[in-house]
Amino acid sequence: MTVDADPVAELPDPRDYGLAVVGEEEIPAELTSLVAEVRSLVDAVARTRAGAEELSAARAAVAAAAAQLGDGPRHDVGTMVRRTWDDGRVEYGTLTNAVSGPTNAAAPPLRLETAPEGGLRAQVRLNGTYQGPPGLVHGGWLAALLDQALGAAAVAEGMPGLTANLDVDYRRPTPLNTPLEITSRVTGTERRKVSVAAEIRHDGEVTAEGTAIMVRLNLPGDGGA
Ligand SMILES: CCCCCCCC/C=C\CCCCCCCC(=O)SCCNC(=O)CCNC(=O)[C@H](O)C(C)(C)COP(=O)(O)OP(=O)(O)OC[C@H]1O[C@@H](n2cnc3c(N)ncnc32)[C@H](O)[C@@H]1OP(=O)(O)O
């Protein structure tokens, strides 16, 4: 028997499925600022014109920092981060998510909030390390940003799932180093399928838009299958 994909009131607790969870508020401020520093470092390294001596000194400093953390304790790779909203709603994502992971220096990071008009929204600014064509954001990264916003829109409605299908249209070139707005929302549900839509805007103009079918996680006992 099939049933429609009704939103669940509470998201499943990842610990019930063997995944470690850390609260966002437990991430030390020192780690957050280290991550921001590494993010700036990657951008600086990508475009530096420093000479050999400065480059060698920088390499040694980075190697020393890496050695300092090298053998220390680490979270398991699948560790989830728990975010608790002001209204008490709880949400989970992966700690090192490629797009939104709060401790992933390679993530832009995209931080989505509930939008007053419904769905989610975020502002993000992508530096030169996300470049495709000169001065423009790489299309693969635009797809990744849309995918994350689409998946998160389903999660926000209590329907976490995996992307089964993603369609992206690139409407206008998307510039680097300038604020971009991302919006997403659920547009329909059918059995385990959740239809979602998202846009990326620059100066109010849509530069890329995507739609996806997220298939709800088939968790034992949630009645979603
Ligand atoms: C454990 C605790 C959890 C805690 C909660 C927190 C969770 C947090 C979650 C999320 C964070 C938010 C952010 C994430 C954002 C990024 C998302 C990604 O990057 S996802 C990675 C890339 N995607 C994959 O790796 C999928 C790989 N594919 C699969 O695993 C399967 O194909 C899957 C699950 C998608 C479907 O497989 P089946 O066996 O479960 O289900 P079948 O029966 O095949 O399909 C169900 C329905 O979907 C349709 N469907 C399947 N594939 C389709 C497709 N490609 N296009 C259209 N429809 C499709 C089918 O026709 C069927 O529809 P009909 O009900 O019969 O009408």
Automatic annotation (TrEMBL):
GO terms for molecular function: hydrolase activity. It comes from the Bacteria. Residues 135-207 form the Thioesterase domain. Keywords: Apoptosis, Cell membrane, Cell projection, Cytoplasm, Fatty acid metabolism, Hydrolase, Lipid metabolism, Membrane, Transit peptide. This is Acyl-coenzyme A thioesterase THEM4. It is found in: Cell projection, Ruffle membrane; Cytoplasm; Membrane. It catalyses: tetradecanoyl-CoA + H2O = tetradecanoate + CoA + H(+); (5Z,8Z,11Z,14Z)-eicosatetraenoyl-CoA + H2O = (5Z,8Z,11Z,14Z)-eicosatetraenoate + CoA + H(+); octanoyl-CoA + H2O = octanoate + CoA + H(+); (9Z)-octadecenoyl-CoA + H2O = (9Z)-octadecenoate + CoA + H(+). It is a peripheral membrane protein. Belongs to the THEM4/THEM5 thioesterase family. Pfam families: 4HBT. Its EC number is 3.1.2.2.
